[in-house]
Records
---
Amino acid sequence: MTTEQPEHKTDVQLVTLTEVAEFAEVRRPTASNWRRRHPDFPRAVREEGQSALFDAAAVARWLDARPLPPAVLAAEADERLMTYGDVFRRGLELRSLGALRNTVRGDRLLAVALALAALRVLTAAPLTMDGLSEGIRRVAAEGRTAEAEALDRSLRDLPDGTQLLLKVVNDLVPSVGGGRAVERLLTQADRLGATNRQDATPETVCRLIAALMGSAAGLTVLDPAAGLGSLLLPLVEAVKPVGVQAADLDAAKVDLLRFRLICHGLKACVRRGNSLFDESSSVADVVVVDPPFTPFDRYTDNVPVTAELTPWAEAAVRFLRPEGRAYLLVPLPALRSARVRPGGLHPLGADGALRAVIQLPRRLHSFRVGVEFALLVYGNAPDGYRRPDDVLFCDADRFAATGADGWFSEVADWVRNPDDAPAEFTCWGEARGSLMPTDRLTGLRSATFQLARLREAQRAVHRFEPELADVPVEPMSRGYRTVGELFRVLPGHKANDKRIRKNDPTGLPVIGVAELTGVVPVGSRSIGTLDVSEAAQVTHPGDVVMLGGDKIRAMVDKAGGSIVLSPARVIRIPGFADYQQHPVDREGIARPHPGMTPRVLVALLMAPRNADRATGGLVRRVDLSRLELPRLETEEVVRLDEVLATFEARRRRAVEHLTAIDAVQAALVAGIADGALKVIVDSDGVSEEGS
């Protein structure tokens, strides 16, 4: 194995303050404080936009005068590192690897760098160019054939610049240890131009799975889609299983994962293969999957995300031993599937193996902040669950929003001891329909509870409005249908705010966020007929205008003829406008009732059970078409509409009553305060006369 020495350039190396912090292994504010508080800190060589560039050599010399704290010295394995300057130069050497990308492909550089680090760990001796082959033979002689073959593949036909890689690895591994060394080399993937970057499974997900697993003594762990081990590696280091298996379809990633595990001192059986169609006898006590790719091309095959993930759920269960557990990380939209299996089962239910669905807190990913995730827990046996087909639904997002520290530990306890799980954040159900915990946790209470609450409210109102207290009801159990199944959901229109007019009766009235949130009265804003697109449609009388954001807001457009502004939407009851205008046909025969009225629909949509339906990593929105409504008979809808109309009339009268009282009080106090009125007092008290 031979290589040519790279040419050493004499150009000045420039670094930003962010790179100073990175290479010196301090936080970014520390580097800023160095520059701001120390007049002798090197001046910027030049300014590029808002970034200042500094001479790396000058920064290193300045940092030589700053010794490392005792705690940092104790953690360093390399006794040669005494100052921040030493640490900075070590980091600077790593950046120098980026210069090689102009002559060697980034993926090849990364593979050689990680292979050299692994060989340095296995041989426990400095590497030389002439001794690489002998080192690989020593590894094979120790019985590590798979590792030796991977090293030979990666270190064959070495590219130019390997000598620089060798120097960096020989300095880095003894200095920080194999595990930290390989992680630092992996962080250089972007600078090297490598496409084999690490898949970033959030650290919180690894901690949650570790908490769910508990003690892993005597257990084996399998990751059938390991990639570079972003899920497997931290999990294995946390729970210390007795055996580790990993697989991936990408041969290059398999070798990189093997090198990474070697550097961390972990033994594992790593193989290349397509786990989705693997019929081998590989089984494990724990299976973890963060699918890095899908077996279908959604752009050409039009396959929804649920179908893409279903094979991973089936594979995870197939690899499980009896009493084992599998954990599958999926994007939240996969929990809502339009395609169901016989019996209405959700495709991700894995034929009854699903045990728990945990909706994870938002913004777990540092770079995919707009994507929400859920963790699915599978098991081949009920293991303490009430029935084999029972599924525990947990909204960890709602629980974490309460500010609870260590929420993943609490959630893990709920899954392990489901009978102790709080009803506020968990519920039981079957793997049918939507698996979204926010769709399941709708505040449903028993008929006995609801009836008792109604009776208590009726007793309270009886003192003032006896008629309102006389609404006969009885307990019953209902089915549900979604808004999308029952009605037409129409989008709102986008309009330039500059086109919206105020108090102009010549235009079309608009209903938008301001009207639905009560900022402006309905009818106070309008838009010219020439300012809307030809495709814009006005509302029909009786249309329901709805806004699904942090909470649901809805109103009835009784007159119609309005333009609804996005993000508000329109829910149209089929046939209601015609029924309202012509309740009987030409022959005097009553038309059939449409089965719903706008007043009843608004009341049901704004009921407490729909208060927490919103989802979305950045902006919370309610999927209106999936909101559920109870099945009501037409006669019950008509009677309920009459009752709600009575409530509205009495509420308006009560508001008028309170307004009149407030007006009298304000006028009396204002007159006295201005010295214009006097309250007449006689021997019997305050007179009704004034002056």
Note: The domain at 203-440 is CATH 3.40.50.150 (Rossmann fold).
---
Amino acid sequence: MSYSKIDRSTASVPVNTKYHLFAFVKDTTDGPGHVSISSVKETPEQNKIKHTSFFPSLIGSFINGLSLGSVPVPGRLASDHQEDLREAEHVLVKEIDSEQYQRAKKAQKNFSKEVSAGKRAYSVFGSLNPFATLMTSFFNAQKNAYATAEKHKRIHGFHPVEDHCGFHVYDNESHSAPATFGPDNCASSVTYVVAEAGIPFSNPLIPTLFTPSLEKQGFQKIDKEEFIQRFKLK
């Protein structure tokens, strides 16, 4: 299915339920770029959209800037797609089947839950910055050590004992399931959703590179006004 201007007359009035992935790309030119993703269910009666846009808080952005992304910070999710649509230089769309749509929605929900649970930390350069990976490994070790100590206390009623070197000693029952998180950013969040939908996709790492990379996977550019008029998703 084409989204060119030639097809507007027929594409503007859909007759069946259709499913789409939309990517909103703000190029890395004047200031930092950004990329986000939406799954859309299109019906004659109503269009439903679920949007994933991952970014740091104002303070987190400041810390990321000072540390060049070496210190991952808590991330946030946008409540809707409107700001990303407004700021995007490119909007791209790919029609998908119902199974891919459900898989994309599930990935978006999982990502949202992991952000809320603190399992997704934001780093402006993501895994490109080795110090960010090192810092998240340190945070994981600290978090897992604390969880194991608390589990030992719940089971036995006292803190773990220490050996002659001062290290805590645990039995096998006290070890908690390791909680891990890595450095993420807007690029990795979009890559995760697209890949989970069953579309082969490698993280381009930089928002500006998303447009050509997505086009190679069948995404097509769509005019902003066409997007608004057809999908009624202002």
Note: The chain has one domain: 5-122+185-231.
---
Amino acid sequence: MKIKRILILPLFFTLFGNSAFSGEQKMLLENEKNTIGVFQKNVRSVVNVSNIQIARRGVFDFNPMAIPAGAGSGFIWDKEGHIVTNYHVIANGDSFLVSFHKEKKQYKAKVVGVEPKKDIAVLKLVELPSNLSPIQTGSSQALVVGQKAI
């Protein structure tokens, strides 16, 4: 009898244990649903920016090494390939690689503007992918004081 209980218990948790977790998604707050919706709507506009620094071991080092110095996110601003990111992501970088969601190919980008005090930078893609999707922006005129904006 004891062996039957031991065998039935794992079966019970396997069949019914996951149902508790599946209900969690239904209990999302309205605020969470909104954030998820914004992400799903704009995921193709968000990019990963990799900061590459060129390092030399000495003055006479003729084989410099490309070293990953940092990474961060950014978003595509327009069809011309401008990308908005944070200054600290690109600070002290020698070259930059941009990758898109679920894409293996990386694209080179160059810095076209920075404002270190506001921690903002603008990059421009050297080569434009065919499926470039700029971020969808809203109107700040429609906002009221205290309203959440993403």
Note: DSSP finds three helices and six strands in the chain.
---
Amino acid sequence: QTSRNALASLLKKMAIDHPYHTICQLLALANGDRVKDKQRSRSSFVVDMDKKLAAENLLKELSSFHGALIRQMKQMVEIYIRLAELETRKEDTNKKISLPREFRSICQLELAKVPVVTATIPVDPNCRYEEGTFPHFSGLVDSITIMNGINAPKVIQCIGSDGNRYRQLAKSGNDDLRQDAVMEQFFSLVNMFLQNHRDTSERRLRIRTYNVGMNAINLHFS
């Protein structure tokens, strides 16, 4: 119990000081039991309810520090979950299709406190994350591309406040991207070493990386 309390205190401190690097992960844990009915019956689906409840309680505590940010992040997470779970037809594979009518209002939704979810935000040792120093979520392009795969991943274009379009891949199902996320962190460290070494820096050697995020335990975007 002591170690659990210590971990909870550490996570709370991290979320207060570095909300853009922690709250999305907490929301993923809080959404841990959010899956389609047909997946819920599979033996591979196991929810750690202790983690889910702990994440929910921590988010409630954090609402007094980052209430507006958490509310907007929940909106963004809901958008990506709905898109990832969007039912598609086989004949739409590898095609660009328009979003259904119920998604049209989302395309114009602006979340001024929420950064583009796949953008890289450097960790600030001084814990100062001013709005306007990163591109925030300003909507979605009103069409998506359905990729080939069992879970029909969708290519989405998020519009940032800087006017750029950020290409993202949303998927749901049994694919577990947590290992992918760990490997991307490792590749980022490798890039730091390559950048700090004179020879490799002059040759501009680097590994191309992408950001992996989670909206729920089995819903991902990258």
Note: The chain has one domain: 2-221.
